[in-house]
Amino acid sequence: MTAARPTLNFVSIFVRDVAAATARYVQLFGIEPTELHGAPPVHPFGDSPPVVFELGTVAFALYECAPARGTHPGDVGFGMDFGTGLDEVCGRANKVQARVFRMPSPLQEDTRRMAVFVTPDRHFFEAVEPIDS
Prior knowledge:
Blueprint: E1 7-15, H1 18-29, E2 51-55, E3 58-64, E4 76-81, H2 86-95, E5 99-106, E6 112-118, E7 124-130
Parallel strand pairs: 1-3, 4-7
Antiparallel strand pairs: 1-4, 2-3, 5-6, 6-7
């Protein structure tokens, strides 16, 4: 199998209180959040825009939990570009018994689509691609 090498672009961290978590991470990382980042500006499973810290080539995005949409404090999602179409990625996820619970669809206020799946090990992946792919 010769697929493109996936790239980790952002990590979504779901928290109960974004303001309190932001204060903790400002102190922990020693940097302020950034306005320019690759995380979704509106997450389909979050209740507010993210607070994002750029950590090298990966964005660390804090989202407020949206229990009505299935997220809980402590949930973590890995924002990946798999280098191939999302339909193919979802097909591969199904083959390894991952549960795809968001089929490829546009992100609000973004130029990308996202699919979300969870592996049997309970690891969440947020696969993204430009809309024109």
